[in-house]
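Q: Fold this one first, please.
A: Sequence and structure below.
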Amino acid sequence: MTDLTCGNILNPGRREIGLLRASTVVTIGVGATAAVIVAALVQGAGDDPLSTALSLSVPSQYKSLIEDAGNTCPEVTPNLLAALLTQESGFNPQARSQVGAEGIAQFMPSTWETYGVDGNGDGKRDVWDPQDAIPAAARYLCSIAKDVKDVPGNRQSNMLAAYNSGSDAVRRYGGVPPYKETRNYVQSIEALAKQPAPGGDTTAATQGATVVNAAQEMIGTPYSWGGGDANGPTKGTCCSPHGTSGSSVAGFDCSGLTLYAYARVGISLPRTAAQQYAASEPVKPEDMRPGDLVFYGSSPASIHHVGIYIGGGWIIDAPRPGTKVRFDPLDTMSDLFAVGRPVPSHDKEI
């Protein structure tokens, strides 16, 4: 059985999330946005120090780089650096912004000239090479931390704000500037960086981490409409409702990816996004954790997309024909409907 809705609504713009319609899975106030959800995640966190161990799920090829660079100075931790890279580029080393920021850490060319490093010792400083850009990002953060060390407030928050809007703005406003973009940026990174290390609810933490890691290992796998099962990528059905071929290459559609990832923790999800919604327990915004599923649509019957929440306002998903499995912002589509946590089928009737 293929997912006859996944990927139907092509809505690639990063826009504010509209009303999360009334549902049994999650209830959020009118006009809620991804920023509201992220703010709920960090509310009450206070100024507790961010974790000094890397507990976030990151692409395996960058793990040692982040762990090493994340100890460059006291204000920078592996988790914070990993969260920043997630926010900046979704770990895409070829990312280029509309204003000209480049690479996995989104350096402007002038900033790279000052702070770029030859991290791998090959004789050149290459902003497109994560082995250079990741340690350079840590070096730049540490330099910024010194620039704003006398500014009131949380030093890490001020450092992140300066990375986004400049040290002058942080000094001028005596802390995080009142720019909506900058405040959301800081909150998103801190929310993701404060993801707890294994401990406490170890079963839940391990399950979520396993789901995220399984999906992350599929980053770059082609979208295939109707593709994917519990064993991995498969060739999809002939065509999507848009006439796009899904059978030429093995891959995943949105619900095929989530089905695969949850099979890694012994949970058998049904095939379609709408059915997966029905098989999930309600999750409030403040209780969201990595591994939860996020659903897009206007009603239970119209759910057309699902992704895996990784924290900090980001998901992993298989968006639509012509794309690949990738990181996307939580507001990748404007009709975020609900958040749910799958449970074993024997615990919930579908």
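Q: Good. Now the second chain.
A: Here it is, same layout.
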Amino acid sequence: MEENVAADIAPTALPPAPGADRYRSLDFADTTAALPADQRYDLLAAPESAMRWLAAHDLTAPDVKLYEVCAQRMRTLRGHVRALFAARVDGTAPPEQSLRAVNEALTAVPTAPLLAWDRAQGPRRVQAHPTDQAVSHALATLAADAADLLTGRDADLLAACGSTPCDRFLVRTHGRRHWCSTRCGDRARAARARRTPE
């Protein structure tokens, strides 16, 4: 059975999940999600929408051209990041291929700006990656961010949205909240109210 996939939706349809302002990798993992009525959306489904997502997250210049092979690389890494997040949330061992993929992305290009010098500007920090490595640089940055989330102080706060069918991730901000958005929270409360006998 083939899923209905909305290739691109308005950014206001699903706001960033809690924690996405601190972890771009969380927002990256949430660029695909299940919606009610057996639908999914994918903000990386096409090179144009993937390029908009990268530019909106300051991971590449807006004039960099993205091709399908680049969008596919992004979707592949996203799948591995989602697998690592799911394993952390479930308390299970992560898939070996996902660990390997994130580590390969981490080491593909330098993520730290290098030190450069010229007569006019003196010493400065620059990103040392040519345009053809822009996606590799973005993926390395996202992989590093995912590793930071999985091993940092917020790792125990990483959660999956508790509103079926949503499968987005979030960083819990207070209490036991396990919803990625108000919309999902409202849907979960409505479902609970329908199950509760009067």
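Q: Anything worth noting on the second one?
A: The longest strand covers residues 114-118.
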